[in-house]
C-alpha cells in the first residue's frame, strides 16, 4: 500500500495539473490524506491492474491492499458492468476524466455496492498516460434516501387520494339523509298549510338548510386546507350571477326586514368559476343580512381597468380597521360573542377562492357606517370573451 | 308522460315521489342505472329522467352513456340530482339539462321539471 502510493507520489511533479488526485498528492507530499480519506482511492494501470489501494477501499470492498494489488480491477465489477471498464479506460487513454459516474461494484463477499466514481489519468514524467487514479464513493446511503423519498412521495400521493375519496364519500353520506329530511319537511309544510304547526316546520326546514351549508363548508375547508382550491374556469356573466344570488337571498333579507338593492351593468363577462363565485357572493350577502341590522344592503358590479369589482355594502356595525385582515383567517369571527352563529370559515374560504382566481377580497374604507366588502377579479384571462356591454 | 326517478336512497325516493305525485305527475322509480334502462326499454313514455349519480350496479354516469347509445332513448332530458360536491363539475360530461345538489330545493326542481313535463290534471293533486 505504502509502496504503491509512494510510487505514484514520486512522479507527482509530472502529474496532470487538473487531476484532483494528483493535486492532492502534490499538495501534501504524503499519503496521509489518501490513507485517511473516507472515499476509496485506487490506482491502476491502463490494462486495469490495481497498483494502489487505500484503507477506505479496504473497508468498502473488503479486500486488503496485500490481497488485491496486482490483480485486475474487473474483480470488483458485476458481470453486467464489464463494459463500463472498457468505456472508462478508453476515455482515460485519451487523457479525459470521468466524473461522478454512478455504477455498481462488488465487494469481496459479493455484496453489490452503489458507487459514484471519479477517474483521472495518471501521467509519467514524460507526460505519457500510464494509469488511472480512481476515487470511489459509497452512495448506498444516498440511494437508500432516494428510495425512501420515493416511498414517502407515493405514500403522500396515496394519502391525498384516500382523503379525496373520504371527503367525497363523507359529503355524499351526509347530504343524502339531509335530502330525504328536507323533502319530507316540504311535504309536511304543505299538508300543514294554515295550521299552527306550519311555523315549526318552516323553522325545521331552515335548520336543515343551515346544516347543509355547514356540511358543505366543513368539507370545503377540509379539501382546501389539504390541497388548495383549483377553480373550474368557464366563460360566465358576473352580472347574471349577482342577479341570481341576490334573487335567492332576497327572502332571507326580507325575513330580517332588509332588502337587497342591486346595481350592475347589463353584463360583465369573464373567465371564472361560477359555482365558486356563487359561494363567495352568497357568503358576503349572508353576512350582510346577518350583521346589517335590517337596513338596506347594496350590491354593485363595476368594470374598470381589466378588473371586475363587486361590492356588498351593509349598514351594520362595520368592521374596525384592526379586524379587516383577521376576519379572513380560519376560525376567526368578526363578532366577539356567540350571538351570531357560524364556524368562522366563510370569509377564509371566500379568500381562497378569490385568490385562486388571481383576485382580491377585502373590506374597503368607505368612510360610511357599515361594512363595505369588495371582490376584485381580473377579467382578462386566457379564453376570456370580450365584454360587449360591461363598460 | 311519466317521470322516471332513478335513485338508490329509499327515503329520498319515497319523499320525492310523494312531492311529484302531489303535483300531478306520474312517477316510475328505479334503484340504479341498469334498472332504469330496463324500465325505459319497457312500455311507457317518459318526459324527464331524474338521475342520481352514486348508485350501485350501474351509476348515473354509466347509465347516461348507455342512454345516449340508444337512439330511441337519447332524447329524453336528464336532470341530475347529486349528493356529490363534484357533481356540478361533471355536468358538462353528462350533458344534462340541469344539475341540482342534494339536499334538493323542491321548488327549484319542480320549476325545472315543468320545462319538460305537464302534470296530468285530476285526482292526483291533494
Word description of this protein:
The complex is a heterodimer of chains A (391) and B (126). Chain A has 391 residues and is of the alpha+beta class. Chain A has eleven helices and twelve strands. In chain A, strand 1 and strand 2 form a beta hairpin. Chain A starts with a helix and ends in a 13-residue tail after the last strand. The N terminus and C terminus of chain A are likely disordered. Chain B has 126 residues and is an alpha/beta fold. Chain B is built from five helices and five strands. A five-stranded parallel β-sheet of chain B has the order 2-1-3-4-5, with helices on both faces. In chain B, strand 3, helix 3 and strand 4 form a beta-alpha-beta unit. In chain B, helix 2 runs parallel beside helix 3. At the A-B interface, helix 7 and helix 8 of A face helix 1 of B.
Summed up, the helix count of chain A is 11
Q: Structural class from helices and strands of chain A?
A: alpha+beta
For the record, what is the CATH homologous superfamily label of the largest domain in chain A? Histidine kinase-like ATPase, C-terminal domain
Could you say what the CATH topology of chain B is called? Answer: Rossmann fold
Return the average pLDDT of chain B rounded to an integer.
Answer: 85
Structural class of chain B: alpha/beta
Mean pLDDT of chain A: 82
Rounded to the nearest angstrom, the distance between the terminal CA atoms of chain B is 20 Å
CATH architecture of the largest domain in chain A: 2-Layer Sandwich
CATH class of the largest domain in chain A: Alpha Beta
Strand content of chain A: 15-25%
How large is the radius of gyration of chain A?
Answer: 37 Å
Question: In sequence order, what are the helices and strands of chain A, one letter per element?
Answer: HHHEEHHHEEEHHEHEEHEEHEE
Anisotropy-based shape of chain A:
elongated
The DSSP helix count of chain B reads 5
Q: Any low-confidence stretches of chain A, pLDDT <50, length ≥5?
A: 1-15, 383-391
CATH architecture annotation of chain B: 3-Layer(aba) Sandwich
Shape of chain B: globular
Q: How many β-strand runs of chain A?
A: 12
Q: How many beta-strand segments of chain B?
A: 5
Summed up, the domain count of chain A is 3
Amino acid at each position: 500500500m505504502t509502496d504503491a502510493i509512494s510510487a505514484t507520489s514520486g512522479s507527482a511533479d509530472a502529474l496532470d495539473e487538473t487531476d484532483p488526485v494528483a493535486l492532492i498528492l502534490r499538495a501534501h507530499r504524503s499519503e496521509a490524506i489518501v490513507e485517511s480519506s473516507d472515499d476509496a482511492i485506487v490506482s491502476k494501470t491502463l490494462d486495469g491492474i490495481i497498483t494502489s489501494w487505500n484503507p477506505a477501499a479496504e473497508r468498502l470492498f473488503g479486500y486488503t491492499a496485500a490481497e488485491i494489488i496486482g490483480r485486475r480491477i474487473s474483480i470488483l465489477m458485476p458481470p453486467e458492468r464489464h463494459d463500463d471498464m472498457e468505456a472508462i479506460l478508453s476515455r482515460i487513454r485519451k487523457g479525459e476524466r470521468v466524473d461522478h459516474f454512478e455504477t455498481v461494484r462488488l465487494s469481496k463477499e459479493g455484496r453489490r455496492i452503489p458507487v459514484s466514481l471519479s477517474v483521472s489519468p495518471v501521467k509519467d514524467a514524460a507526460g505519457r498516460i500510464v494509469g488511472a487514479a480512481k476515487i470511489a464513493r459509497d452512495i448506498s446511503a444516498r440511494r437508500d434516501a432516494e428510495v425512501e423519498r420515493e416511498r414517502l412521495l407515493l405514500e403522500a400521493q396515496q394519502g391525498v387520494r384516500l382523503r379525496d375519496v373520504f371527503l367525497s364519500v363523507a359529503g355524499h353520506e351526509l347530504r343524502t339523509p339531509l335530502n330525504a329530511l328536507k323533502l319530507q319537511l316540504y311535504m309536511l309544510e304543505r299538508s300543514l298549510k294554515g295550521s299552527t304547526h306550519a311555523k315549526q316546520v318552516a323553522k325545521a326546514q331552515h335548520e336543515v338548510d343551515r346544516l347543509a351549508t355547514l356540511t358543505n363548508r366543513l368539507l370545503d375547508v377540509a379539501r382546501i386546507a389539504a390541497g388548495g382550491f383549483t377553480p373550474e374556469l368557464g366563460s360566465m356573466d358576473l352580472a347574471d350571477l349577482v342577479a341570481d344570488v341576490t334573487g335567492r337571498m332576497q327572502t332571507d333579507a326580507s325575513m330580517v326586514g332588509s332588502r337587497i338593492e342591486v346595481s350592475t351593468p347589463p353584463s360583465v363577462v369573464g373567465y371564472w368559476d361560477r359555482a365558486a363565485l356563487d359561494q363567495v357572493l352568497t357568503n358576503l350577502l349572508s353576512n350582510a343580512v346577518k350583521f346589517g341590522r335590517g337596513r338596506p344592503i347594496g350590491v354593485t358590479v363595476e368594470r374598470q381597468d381589466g378588473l371586475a369589482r363587486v361590492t356588498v355594502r351593509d349598514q351594520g356595525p362595520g368592521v374596525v380597521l384592526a379586524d379587516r385582515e383577521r376576519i379572513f383567517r380560519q376560525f376567526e369571527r368578526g363578532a366577539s360573542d356567540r350571538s351570531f352563529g357560524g364556524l368562522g370559515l366563510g370569509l377564509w374560504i371566500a379568500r381562497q377562492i378569490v385568490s385562486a382566481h388571481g383576485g382580491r377580497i377585502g373590506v374597503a374604507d368607505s368612510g360610511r357606517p357599515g361594512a363595505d366588502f369588495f371582490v376584485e377579479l381580473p377579467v382578462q384571462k386566457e379564453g376570456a370573451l370580450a365584454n360587449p356591454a360591461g363598460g | 308522460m311519466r317521470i322516471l326517478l332513478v335513485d338508490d336512497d329509499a327515503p329520498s325516493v319515497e319523499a320525492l315521489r310523494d312531492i311529484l305525485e302531489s303535483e300531478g305527475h306520474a312517477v316510475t322509480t328505479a334503484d340504479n342505472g341498469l334498472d332504469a334502462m330496463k324500465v325505459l326499454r319497457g312500455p311507457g313514455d317518459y318526459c324527464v329522467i331524474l338521475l342520481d349519480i352514486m348508485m350501485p350496479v350501474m351509476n348515473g354516469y354509466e347509465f347516461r352513456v348507455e342512454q345516449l347509445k340508444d337512439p330511441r332513448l337519447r332524447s329524453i332530458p336528464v336532470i341530475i340530482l347529486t349528493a356529490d360536491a363534484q357533481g356540478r363539475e361533471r355536468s358538462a360530461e353528462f350533458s344534462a339539462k340541469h344539475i341540482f345538489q342534494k339536499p334538493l330545493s323542491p321548488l327549484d326542481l319542480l320549476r325545472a321539471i315543468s320545462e319538460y313535463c305537464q302534470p296530468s290534471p285530476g285526482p292526483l293533486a291533494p
